[in-house]
Design brief:
eight-stranded parallel sheet; Metal-dep_hydrolase_composite; single chain; eight-stranded mixed sheet; imidazolonepropionase activity; histidine metabolism; iron; TIM Barrel; globular; Urease, subunit C, domain 1; binds N-(iminomethyl)-L-glutamic acid; binds zinc ion; Imidazolonepropionase
Length: 413
């Protein structure tokens, strides 16, 4: 049966003509219709407009949105949501003064998560991950990217990607999988990074590609992890197998990873806590989306991505959670949007664009979701009764969601 939302106080992110993403000044425009209706059939947006042109209600399942807003569900383009256990111990170590780097050097960090994941069965990993996926769907996420990278052996990386595949099969939400074999050098290859790179390139990657387990290839391009030269090797190999680059760069140090991303036509370059003039410059007029992860900056007390500088330079920007057990144990996009406004000085319009249409682009989904456009998936947030969309970031630490719809169906609370 068709669904008709009526009396929507404001319908946000209305894009009659489809767009891929917004950049620079366009990021401050959030087109909307006040006192609107919206129709949905078979999970797809079929129409919208002003209530004065609302179709007759017969034959529709009616949803009265009086006092409430409707916007596209959040598009979270960077997560590590499939992981085993947690790292609460390291959290306490950091409170007591150890740095993220010191913890990693003592065998904590990514290697700690890899150790746990390697001894966790696929079934158990699926059970733990599905809880997190359900939680973020309830928090308004309507499309998500999930990375491997806590396996660091052939079997464990494939186990992670199989869990992502099962999530895809069992949930209505659009999920994109990324192979992040080069997340850290595993202990077994401590003194042989080249050997590990060969394993990733010559053994794991071809298997993943043959089984179509991932769309994207990622590398943690960072001092102490993988250099620019290592990153180039992995991206070139990934591209040979049809995987598109989406990479971790400029989190703690700026070593030229942004330039590498652009050189390899990465769909996105993510983190960007440290941005030099040349990093901003090289992103201009490219199709590579910069992605900021403000919850990671918050949790690790590291700099925030310089959003104002980047937007004023004419760049686009997407926002994502980075949901993972080490640097960001939160998949809450509402908090991301609020933190982007509060700490990065993005306006609510910019933050909503960054968390919807630009996030969709950063995972290759801007033709399917991220805006209110006829033909796109009806991935929607119906808010509580609120004053204006400014309340969404204003009420940080809380959310203003009444109901989330994914492909037209309400998500169970
Ligand atoms: N920086 C690299 N990877 C993750 C964190 C990994 C971890 O600490 O487990 C991130 O994006 O923040
Ligand atoms: Zn990450």
């Amino acid at each position: 049966m068709d669904t008709l939302f009526i009396n929507i106080k404001e319908l946000l992110q209305v894009r009659t003509a489809p767009i891929e993403f917004v950049s620079g000044k366009e990021m401050s425009e959030l087109p909307s219709i006040k006192n609107a209706y919206l129709t949905v059939r078979d999970g797809i947006i079929t129409g919208f407009g002003s209530m004065s042109n609302c179709p007759k209600t017969d034959g529709f399942k009616l949803i009265d949105a009086t006092g409430k807003l409707v916007l596209p569900a959040w598009c979270d383009s960077h997560t590590h949501l499939v992981y085993a256990g947690n790292r609460e111990g390291e959290f306490v170590d950091r409170i007591k003064g150890l740095s993220y780097e010191e913890i990693a050097n003592n065998g904590g960090g990514i290697l700690n998560s890899a150790k746990k994941l390697q001894v966790t069965s696929e079934e158990e990993l699926y059970q733990q991950s599905k809880v997190r996926l359900e939680e973020v769907m309830q928090l308004g996420t309507g499309a998500i990217e999930i990375k491997s990278g806590y396996g660091l052996t052939e079997d464990a990386e494939i186990k992670m990607l199989n869990v992502i595949k099962r999530l895809k099969e069992n949930y209505p939400i659009e999920i994109k999988a990324t192979f992040l074999g080069a997340h850290a050098v595993p202990s077994a290859y401590k003194n042989d990074k080249a050997g590990y790179l060969q394993l990733v390139i010559n053994s794991i990657l071809p298997k993943i590609a043959a089984q179509s387990l991932a769309s994207y290839i990622d590398v943690f391009c960072e001092t102490g992890y993988f250099s620019v030269a290592d990153t180039e090797l992995i991206l070139a190999a990934g591209k040979k197998h049809g995987l598109i680059p989406k990479i971790h760069v400029n989190q703690f140090t700026a070593i030229g990873g942004v330039q590498t991303g652009v050189k390899y036509n990465a769909l996105s370059v993510d983190h960007l806590e440290l941005m030099r003039e040349e990093d901003i410059e090289v992103l201009k007029n490219t199709r590579t989306m910069p992605v900021a992860l403000p919850s990671c900056s918050y949790f690790l007390s590291i700099p925030y991505t310089p959003a104002r500088k980047m937007i004023e330079a004419g760049l686009p920007l997407a926002l994502a959670t980075d949901y993972n057990p080490g640097s960001t144990p939160s998949g809450n996009m509402n908090f991301v949007v609020a933190t982007a406004c509060i700490k990065m000085k993005m306006t609510p319009e910019e933050a909503i664009n960054a968390a919807t249409i630009n996030g969709a682009y950063a995972m290759g989904l801007s033709d399917k979701t991220g805006s209110i456009t006829i033909g796109k998936q009806a991935n929607l947030i119906l808010t509580k009764q609120i004053n204006s969309f400014g309340c969404i970031p204003y009420s940080f630490g809380n959310h203003q969601i009444d109901t989330v719809y994914i492909k037209g169906m309400p998500v169970d609370k």
